[in-house]
Amino acid sequence: MNRLPLLIVQMGSPPPELAAQAGEQADWFAAALPGETLHVIRVHDDQPLPPAHTFRGAILSGSWQMVTDRLPWSERSARWLRELLPTGKPVLGVCYGHQLMAHALGGVVDDHPDGPELGTQSIECLPGIEDDPLLRGLPLRFHAHLTHTQSVLQAPPGAQTLARSAHDARQILRYGPRAWSVQFHPEFTPGLLRRCIARRAPALEAAGRNVQALYDGLRETPESASLLRRFAALA
Fold it and tell me: Can you give the residue ranges of the Glutamine amidotransferase domain (predicted)?
């Protein structure tokens, strides 16, 4: 019997200049999951979200939109999530997907009061990862690529926080036996994050950020990247 695909729910498209250089979110997940059969739904283009029996697990991508904009395709995805999660189908939200899952389940998402989080940052695991099927075996600290303005300011009722950074208290959330979300980008490479920084460099410098320090801090993130392969193996 053929194995069901992993579903990639792509939440919007990158800025055109970035897409021309590096492709789109689905391309980045495909590169991070070689050998996996993926089914991509571009929900922002009004492609319908499929029923649970057609895929073995779902990954929700990042976006350049904001959850607080309550865009129709985003709210439709939130309704789909509320129907999907009780089925027990494995789900992993990434960045925007992390925030959308929290919003869909009753959490609070908004601009972070301390501003954006950007660059390769240290993630600290919290008690509970040792019993978690996705996270067990991770080091207590690892590095991950981040670029986001909004955050989960309040987790949904019943959600467990399993990691944090110095900037963001809810870097990994678990919503049930097989549903997780991460604020960071396990699908990113240092080169991709460098491109994301470069296109914003003038605005970052005008805001007082040390862009060269962000470049200098870029590094490989094997532990973060491993979460996608771990999720695929669990699904």
Answer: 51-192
Based on the residue annotation, tell me whether 196 is a catalytic residue of this protein.
no
Q: What is the pLDDT of residues 66-86, one digit of tens each?
A: 999 999 999 999 999 999 999
Work out the angle between the directed axes of helices 72-84 and 96-104 (0-180°, nearest 10): 70
Closest CA to 134 of 164, 99, 106, 162: 162
What pLDDT digit, counting tens, does each position of 93-113 carry? 999 999 999 999 999 999 999
Nearest to 148 by CA among 212, 219, 94, 195: 94
Q: Is the full-model pTM beyond 0.85? A: yes
225 Rama class: left (phi>0) / alpha (psi -120 to 50) / beta: alpha
- Verify whether residue 223 is a known catalytic residue: no
For the chain, which domains are there? 6-234 (3.40.50.880)
> Pick the catalytic residue: 95, 103, 117, 148?
95
